[in-house]
Amino acid sequence: MENFEQKKLLVVFCDLTNYAKISRKIDETEVFGYLSNMYEIIGEIIESACGRIIKFIGDAALITFDENDIDKGIVALKNLKTEIDSYNQKNKFESQLIIKAHFGQVIAGMIGTKNKKMYDIFGNVVNIAATLPSNGYTISVEAFRQLKPETRKLFKKHTSPITYIGVDEKHR
């Protein structure tokens, strides 16, 4: 059995709306260039806030923040959404970044083939984060409860099920 640890993390999924549709209409080299730039933007913002990019999968990213960095991470994610949405608008890429975040215990460790192991995370918290409904930037109740009062002001309650969405997001 491989080495792993249980730890509490803010688990974040982000991806783009309309990506598959748009990528079929443009040249593959343009898609590659776009994603390359997007990955760099994500890396700069997330890593400067002590976050960890677990992996990119096409237009999607799996990101974590340690429990002690959750407020910093939540603010960085808001900045990331603003930056990517602005980048898309400037490049006439009719898409927005969707962010979904949940907090809880995961299994984390190095996993992979015999010759190539990579850090990854697993567990129900990961699955819940991936399936949160979102039109923009949504965090779960569990994530919201970890925030300091000043960071909580970035969100408003949205039901049902209860999630918290960015104050500038529309209800469905």
Account of the 3D structure:
The protein is α+β, with helices and mostly antiparallel strands. The protein has one domain (4-166): 2-Layer Sandwich (Alpha-Beta Plaits), CATH 3.30.70. The protein has six helices and eight strands, in the order βααββαββαβααββ. It has helices spanning 19-25, 28-48, 70-90, 124-131, 141-144, 149-152; strands at residues 4-16, 52-57, 60-66, 97-112, 117-122, 137-140, 155-158, 163-166. Strands 1, 2, 3, 4, 5, 6, 7 and 8 form an eight-stranded mixed sheet that branches. A hairpin with a 4-residue loop joins strand 7 and strand 8. Helix 2 runs antiparallel to helix 3 (70-90). The longest helix has 21 residues, at 28-48. It is globular, with a radius of gyration of 16 Å. The N and C termini lie far apart (44 Å). The relative contact order is 0.19.
Give the gist of this structure:
The chain is an alpha+beta fold and 172 residues long. The chain has helices at residues 19-25, 28-48, 70-90, 124-131, 141-144, 149-152; strands spanning 4-16, 52-57, 60-66, 97-112, 117-122, 137-140, 155-158, 163-166.
Low-confidence stretches at least 5 residues in length (pLDDT < 50)?
none
Mean of pLDDT: 92
CATH topology: Alpha-Beta Plaits
Main beta sheet, described? Answer: 8 strands, mixed
The share of residues in extended strands comes to 25-35%
CATH architecture: 2-Layer Sandwich
User: Percent range for helical residues?
Assistant: 25-40%
Class from secondary-structure proportions: alpha+beta
How many helices? The count is 6
Task: Choose one word for the global shape.
Answer: globular
The number of domains: 1
Oligomeric organization of the protein chains: single chain
* CATH class annotation: Alpha Beta
Count of β-strands: 8
Q: Rg to the nearest angstrom?
A: 16 Å
Output the CATH homologous superfamily: Nucleotide cyclase, GGDEF domain
- The string of secondary-structure elements, in order, is EHHEEHEEHEHHEE
Distance between the termini: 44 Å
